[in-house]
């Protein structure tokens, strides 16, 4: 029986959401996510938030829940939109 090796996932670009992103007020977080979605796209922004949620699931559950909630916010507000502007 073959034993699977653990998969190592590396975040290539750090700080895309900015330093202290989760310590900022929710309105500022939404503004940062809006600009990130405009620059990188909806799926990419959701992927970053999902990665943060999964990586922090055991060590920092509260941060994981915040990331999951913000990912849902991005999905709800920007799903299928070609232009993300003002």
Report low-confidence residues grouped into runs of 5 or more: none
Number of helices: 3
Q: Taking all residues together, what is the mean pLDDT?
A: 84
Shape: globular
User: What's the N-to-C terminus distance?
Assistant: 56 Å
Oligomer: single chain
The helical percent reads: 40-55%
Report the C-alpha radius of gyration, rounded. 15 Å
Order of helices and strands: HHH
- The structure class reads mainly alpha
* Strand tally: 0
Strand content: under 5%
Task: Describe the largest sheet.
Answer: none
Topology:
Elements (H helix, E strand, L loop, with lengths): L25 H15 L1 H14 L5 H18 L8
Helix pairs in contact: 1-2, 2-3
Label this structure with key terms.
86 residues, mainly alpha, 3 helices
